[in-house]
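For the sake of transparency, this paper describes our internal protein records without simplification. The remainder of this section carries one protein's record, kept here as part of the documentation:
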Amino acid sequence: MAPLDDWGAAYSPGPAHLPASWTDTVLALCGHRADAGDHLQRCLGEDPGFLPALCVKGLAALFRGQNARRVDALAAAQEARASEAERGSTFRERALIDVLEHWAHDETTQAAEVLHRLVEATPTDLLALKLQHGLLFIAGRPHAMRASLESALPRWSAALPGYGYFLGCLSFALGETGAFDASEAIGRRAVEAEPSDAWGVHAVAHVMESTDRIAEGATWLQTHRDSYAACSVFRGHVYWHEALFLCELGRYDQALAVYDAEVARPWCGDYRDMSNASSLLWRLEADGVEVGERWAALADIAMQHCSDHGSAFADAHYLLALARGSESGARALLGSLVAYVERGGSGDQFAVVRDHGLPLCRAIYTSERRQCSAEELDRLAASTLPLGGSTAQRDLFSLYAIDAARRCGDGERARKLLEARLRARPKNRWALARLELERDGTNPEGRSA
């Protein structure tokens, strides 16, 4: 009989028992903890052929958003297939290998379908739920993310390890689909059940950001810093949220201090570090804050990723950093992106890069040179959901469209976009302040608009 883990998922026999480190590995992954890789290595040390751990190793490479890392993912898939040939596999293990192979070949729709079947078969499979949550998040499919978690909810209880982590994912999905009251209530339950649930803390912060409860959001994150103190790259992202609240409160010196201490931390090669840093610097500068040489430092990093193109979301943030910090670097990235699209491809993320990422990057590049057309500005203001990321992260591009219209001399378009934003978010301080400036004929830096 196949052994079961703590969530009822079945495994091929292999050794007489599951690796002792497996439960800790799954919980560390769900907690976005910096020691997740150490747990994974210990697990593989106990059983080098343990199929789920081999799959997680490959999937970790894909979450980096770099096409070059697909080779690492496929190598892990080959290891998993070799182990499967030796010891056999369960439905769950075969599904995980299929997910890894599909994603490594840029077949994310098929990967998501396999994960859906896996979660349907075992709704308490925490690893499968977290992987599905992450993949659908990257693919810009929040409603599918929510539906899967709501379907699994009746099978979950506090008796299962990681119950708080499950609730944190559900909270985030609810918030991303506009169910703010339910999201906040479940997010608070998640943090109560699992105080180290950084994702749950972050989900509640998203609600407060989306509903413009700025002071409350800053206090919430500062009160729960212990929840994300042990995180890896995600730690910087939660601090990014805190810095956004501080910007909205006009506490720019504090926001810059958070940027220097936590957001622009030692680079770990993850594009999410760049999205945090570049979007925060842009907001500070848009509010008239002098950021010094910080753009140049970001541009040096972005230059190393000019040919990644594994994520349209990542490309746009690299391009923004280069457009502000290195004109030649911005041209190099845009040229590489054009060449990548012209070579052609058939994968899911390739299509997003072609249809959404490249037009967005072109529009950012031309608007930085004050050469943007009405068509390009419309692209900036259009839906960016296919890029993936959260509503708060994609909001950068909505704000950028407003600022770009102003800088390119189209004050009427800027006013219309601001008015549309205020219809959706009547208490939004960013929009209220800029609408007043537009009416006065000045910009946030104090120059004539």
Q: What stands out?
A: The two ends are 73 Å apart (CA to CA). The mean pLDDT is 93. The CA atoms of residues 180 and 207 lie 6 Å apart.
